[in-house]
Amino acid sequence: MIRRLCAGLAGLAMLSACTVVPTPSGVPQHRPPAHHPARPEPAPPPVVAPPPPAKPTNAADSGVQPGPAFTSFAINPDAARAALTAFRLSCPALQRRADQSGLTRSGDWSQPCAQASGWPDGDAAAFFANQLAVVQVGDGRAYATGYYEPEIAGSRAPAPGYDTPIYKRPPDLIEGDLGDFFPELKGKKIRGKVQGGKLIPYPDRGQIEDGALKGRGLEIGYAADPVEFFFLQVQGSGRLRLPDGSVMRIGYDGQNGREYVGIGKLMRDRGLLGSGQLSMQGVMAWLRANPAEGDAIMRENKSWVFFRELTGPGPIGAMNVAVTGRVTVAADPAFVPLGAPVILQLDRSEANGLWVAQDTGGAIKGANRFDTFWGAGEQARTIAGGMSGRGQAWLLIPRAAAARLAEQRDPAARS
């Protein structure tokens, strides 16, 4: 019976792991095996790093703090007069534009603009001190570059030595605001053309240089030097010095929608430029000394700018008003209301003082990022080409807007 029982259990041995042993009384008993393998401890859950904080999308998201009193900056009276003139010029557009920065609302600029129209030029500094409030966006740490209105050799018609076409805006270039479809993308532009019922990217720099727009009657002029024209495109406006000595002024009339790539940084990162070659002049010298490599590098900036002839004052900035040398700065409208005055204190003294944000730029993105405009001529070219300043920035906004932001920051401060 014991054998039969063991035989009967043998088929279950692999499952039950039982052992049958006789007891002194002869009654079989079952007991567990002498050894149970230890169960492995469950693995600890993986450590998941917290997501990085969301990057601010506008000035309000960056945080706004009150700045020093305007009088503490000791603004030069001539600079204050020039800035007041530029501010007056900007006021109509400033009051019409929807402010993407989150700092001001419709109507906030009405009183300052009304006051500016009749304010005496001889007391311009008092206007800024009395009508506007100084605020700091984020930590206020600023970076500023420079741009200017270049003058290059050009011709209205093709001629020997004038081989680089300057195109006007093509009629099939379509531009849209993604905010029309996705509210969170308001202000983000997309450009392209329709082909086969689909919106596709517009030809890039290399494709345009290879003839993508040739034969369509879009040429408004021809440049003598492709390197000079490349940098005129970066500036966004300029002058063509024609063979008869006259000047044709051209201004920005759109862009192909492709990404702007700063070739100076690209060349520096690749070790192509030494410490003394980081200015615009240094980049141009390298491109000319290495024409084949230089052409390939310029094509890595896929952005292409279209132009129109300007017959009135200019050049024209993003607010559709003429910009002024040593007064206008380009800024990101998500962080600066276009038309607002700006104060810079940088490690480049020539850029210190009062400016007015009247323009934008493809590479000018983020809080406290500015591009200072220096006008035309060799001095402007030298300063703008070597401008790279760091320091602090403040904005001037209507007092009503500053008070509202203070209440949002600290409700107990409400009077």
TrEMBL record:
Tell me the first and last residues of the signal peptide.
1-19
Specify the superkingdom: Bacteria
Read off the Gene3D superfamilies from this record: Barwin-like endoglucanases (2.40.240.50), RlpA-like domain (2.40.40.10)
- GO terms assigned for molecular function: hydrolase activity, hydrolyzing O-glycosyl compounds; peptidoglycan lytic transglycosylase activity
Q: For this protein, what is the EC number?
A: 4.2.2.n1
Instruction: Write the protein's name.
Output: peptidoglycan lytic exotransglycosylase
Q: Pfam families from the xrefs? A: 3D (PF06725), MltA (PF03562)
Please report the organism this UniProt entry assigns to the protein. Rhizorhabdus histidinilytica
User: Could you tell me which PROSITE patterns the record lists for this protein?
Assistant: PROKAR_LIPOPROTEIN (PS51257)
SMART domains xrefs: MltA (SM00925)
Q: Name one GO cellular component term.
A: outer membrane
The record's CDD domains line, in alphabetical order, gives:
mlta_B, mltA_like_LT_A
Q: Which InterPro entries match?
A: 3D_dom (IPR010611), MltA (IPR026044), MltA_B (IPR005300), RlpA-like_sf (IPR036908)
The record lists the catalysed reaction(s) as:
Exolytic cleavage of the (1->4)-beta-glycosidic linkage between N-acetylmuramic acid (MurNAc) and N-acetylglucosamine (GlcNAc) residues in peptidoglycan, from either the reducing or the non-reducing ends of the peptidoglycan chains, with concomitant formation of a 1,6-anhydrobond in the MurNAc residue
Q: What class of enzyme is it?
A: lyase
Q: Which residues form the Lytic transglycosylase MltA domain?
A: 151-308
Q: Keywords in UniProt for this one?
A: Cell wall biogenesis/degradation, Lyase, Signal
Please list the GO biological process terms of this entry.
cell wall organization; peptidoglycan catabolic process; peptidoglycan turnover
Indicate, by first and last residue, each region the UniProt record lists as having compositional bias (Pro residues): 40-55
Where are the residues of the annotated region Disordered?
A: 24-69
Q: Which PANTHER family match?
A: MEMBRANE-BOUND LYTIC MUREIN TRANSGLYCOSYLASE A (PTHR30124:SF0)
